[in-house]
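Box 3.1 A note on notation
Throughout this textbook, protein chains are presented in two layers. The first layer is the amino acid sequence; the second is a token string describing backbone geometry. Keep the layers aligned when reading.
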Amino acid sequence: MNIKKIVLSTMLLSMAFIGKSQYVSHISTPDKSKPKIESTSDDSYRLANAISSTNLENYLKILASDSLQGRETGTEGSTLAADYISGFLKKLGMEGRRDNDAYFQQVSFTFSRWTDTDLFIHGERYRLLWDYIALPEQNEHKEIIRASDIIFLGYGIDDPKYSDYKKVDVKDKVIMINRGEPWNNKKDVSYITGTKDVSDWSKDIDKKLRVAKEKGVKLVLIIDEDFKKTVEDNRRNLMMPNLQLGDKGNDPILIANNVFISTTIAKALIGENEKKMLKAREKMAAGKPNHVVLPTDFAINMSKKVTVLKDKNIVGTIRGKSKPNEFIVISAHYDHLGKRGDEVFNGADDNGSGSSAVMELARAFKLATYEGKSPERSIVFLWFTGEEKGLLGSQYYTTSPLFPLENTVANINIDMIGRTDAKYQEDPNYVYVIGSDRLSSELHEITEDVNQKYTQLTLDYGYNSEEDPNRFYYRSDHYNFAEKGIPAIFFFDGIHEDYHRPSDTVEKINFDEMTQRTKLIFHLAWELANRPEKIKVDKAAK
């Protein structure tokens, strides 16, 4: 599971069952007085019964072995994992992509990192993450930028109603700007919009940076009044590899080089010019642009390295009998965190367990075809790369799908199903279910129904709540399908003490419980693939 916080640009609109204000978030306990279906004449029972805990353990011992080096995206360990899974599909006689029957969808990622970045004012050194923030993917490589003066340019706005650039030569200059826009405090309106609404200049910092680039500015220093929050929001991006989807190695950067600075740096640059700054701000408050030239001795290193990594999603397919152009997607991510020094993050639960489950589900569905019981709809088995880097493999698939998204009926996603969390130590016959009612009431109802009939696990919907602070609904690969309007359901065992640690190893997996959860997922997939009508999307989410 991806630990990186997903930042949403819009507020999320919560819609659950009609007449309710919240998505389902209760614990559903099956009626165990009713017997399970255990008849070999029932195709779903018979095929699910072939799912083997021994097979799951054998797959996982390979995927989570030290030899696969933690399966980090773009590494040799990831390649070894992909080759192992694709080799398994080949032995099954599974189809791959329909265009050429290959089992891989190639994906590119661009990784930018600073090789040298220090900021100096009058010879005093200031530090990245402590005093300033600069993201390598948003800046051009510059070995060093020097300035003997810096222009304070107000808000850095160039608008017909207000322009900080009037009568100022900024070519090849370093400028310093504030966030936001000029505001008429007496009337409580923006000088740009003439209303209480802010303009795009406040909403989109890149708009200011694009103008600066066009006018030849060599560096923009952005005074950040909430610098601590900016640091927390970007710390992981700078401390860990931050991958962008696609090959961006030669893409031009359309904004000026930019640095978010603390008020400490701003004060050091202003120095003895505080009175000039106050007068300039008074004029701006009256809707009159003003600038101040600040003599200084400024330098910053902005040396970076850009690496393009190649990796792959893995795909196997079973062609549907009567509805071959309708697709049920079963997915898991196979990447993990790799190595840190000599320590291997094996990722047995996260997400070797989900990857192994999809392998065994593929075997069970293939067994159905051998028996002449092919599902009515096509099944697509997907193993995604780049989940730990920000759901990038699934994002690539849903923007460049191998099978039409408009014909994709549902996504069943598996991310960590091999462990027991603290809440269920006494009775591990449970699974957390997330997303079942977000877009389709039927998907939720079918999940409940097949669980009651076949597996009778406790279904805990607690993490499905929109108020859940973990925000798991937005943190695994199913979300990229849901964002496209495809009903998506996510099966999960909860958080445990070994999450994202080197101690997430095979010997801690509960294979009996993992088997039961995999059987439940088979029953759900089998029902979705064989019911006469595809499930309806009857809910909306933003």
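The first strand starts at residue 27 and ends at 28. The chain has two domains: 27-95+319-530, 112-306.
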